[in-house]
Design goal:
The complex is a heterodimer of chains A (123) and B (114).
Chain A: E1 3-7, E2 11-12, E3 18-25, E4 34-39, E5 45-51, E6 58-60, E7 68-73, E8 78-83, E9 92-99, E10 110-113, E11 117-121
Parallel strand pairs in A: 2-11
Antiparallel strand pairs in A: 1-3, 3-8, 4-5, 4-9, 5-6, 7-8, 9-10, 9-11
Chain B: E1 4-7, E2 10-13, E3 19-25, E4 30-31, E5 36-37, E6 39-44, E7 51-55, E8 59-60, E9 68-73, E10 76-81, E11 90-96, E12 109-113
Parallel strand pairs in B: 2-12
Antiparallel strand pairs in B: 1-3, 3-10, 4-5, 6-7, 6-11, 7-8, 9-10, 11-12
Classes of the chains: A mainly beta (123), B mainly beta (114).
Chain lengths: 123, 114
């Protein structure tokens, strides 16, 4: 059974940093690209960043480029996002999501999602 | 970037009746090389993450009831629930996954029981 478990969400002040983790199980983690998607309270879904199975290819939304860094440790079956210079509009539930198809570096859509972790940026 | 616009924003349908949700892309998501539309539909119930219902505009995921169907091509797409059940109350999102990121979502359509 595929499971994705996010952690690391917290209340942080504007300008602060946070690292989120997503621990995966139930599939061959290194074979699948992974993505972070966020959802502000009461709002829609926003694609944030993705990383290929090998970790060599990454992409970022313009809204987080230069502030967020996605990474993965395939030996630990874990996905990360390092979030720096946080702003109030980064407040959201952050989901990690697994690509539906193995081996792709683009064209991602998602068949499994974690339950999400809440990041609140406020003074 | 692609802009995905759903209509309506909210919808109330009686149990057993048809529900129709539309999604319009600012650019075509049809890739002529393989004649596939790079469009997915998700269902999100309160307090839960999204669930993949349909990919490639019309391919239902395993386990998804056949009352859910997707149609359309190019820039205009529709998610249809043929006979609304109480458990279908949710917010529905379309997502384009054409080419390189960002892979944008529609703003969502909230479906309720009338």
């Amino acid at each position: 059974e595929v499971q994705l478990l996010e952690s690391g969400g917290n209340l942080v002040q504007p300008g602060g940093s946070l690292r989120l983790s997503c621990e995966a199980s139930g599939f061959t983690f290194s074979s699948y690209a992974m993505t972070w998607v966020r959802q502000a309270p009461g709002k829609g879904l926003e694609w944030v960043s993705d990383i290929s199975g090998s970790g060599e290819t990454t992409h970022y939304a313009d809204s987080v480029k230069g502030r967020f860094t996605i990474s993965r440790d395939n030996s630990k079956n874990t996905l990360y996002v390092q979030m720096n210079s946080l702003r109030a509009d980064d407040t959201a539930v952050y989901y990690c999501a697994k690509d539906r198809v193995a081996g792709r570096t683009i064209n991602h859509y998602f068949d499994f999602w974690g339950q999400g972790t809440l990041v609140t940026v406020s003074s | 970037d692609f802009v995905m616009t759903q209509s309506p924003d909210s919808l109330a349908v009686s149990l057993g009746e048809r529900a129709t949700i539309n999604c319009k892309s600012s650019r075509s998501v049809l890739y002529s090389f393989n004649n596939k539309n790079y469009l997915a539909w998700y269902q999100q119930k309160p307090g839960q993450p999204p669930k993949l219902l349909i990919s490639w505009a019309s391919t239902r995921e395993s386990g998804v009831p056949d009352r859910f169907s997707g149609s359309g091509s190019g820039t205009d797409f529709t998610l249809t629930i043929s006979s609304l059940q109480a458990e279908d109350v949710a917010v529905y999102f379309c997502q384009q996954f054409y080419g390189t990121p960002p892979y944008t979502f529609g703003q969502g359509t909230k479906l309720e029981i009338k």
